[in-house]
Amino acid sequence: MPLREARCYRRVKRPYTRKEYIKSIPPSKIRKYEFGNKKGEYDYVYRIITEAPFQLRSNAIEAFRLGLLGQLRNLSKENYFVIIHAHPHHILRRHAMASGHKAERLQKGMRLAFGKPDGRAAQLDKGSRIASIMGYSRDEEAIKNAIRVAASKLPPYIRIVRENLK
After folding, report:
1. What ranges in the chain are assigned the alpha helix state H?
2. Per its UniProt record, what Gene3D superfamilies does this chain match (predicted)?
């Protein structure tokens, strides 16, 4: 089945995380939560903060991470440090409905409508941090541009905040 649109999973409902009830748990798409130079003495940090409660799927977080990494390739890994704070614990379910000719004979309507596991999402409240990007003053324009490009992979309810560390 193709990937369903994110608007189907955007609203925050009750979390569904009990793994002992689920036969096949879909894996998280996120490969790394921290990358760059962890030991640097950085000048500032950019934080990506939510402005409304929503669910963020793991493939959107991974797309953001890859977009950020692709834009930061021209900088050395010693010049920045990125932390992904959003962890996808919530398991998304999908009640697949048949469509097309004679579909009414195949499906059972709302009988057994609980749904099968389809993916994972992070449930974020207002003010939650999605990611933090630290860097030096000399590289600020490159990092700011990388955040602008990568943030296009995220929903529009985010705010980018800059804080000085020194």
Report:
1. 58-71, 103-106, 140-150
2. Ribosomal protein L10e/L16
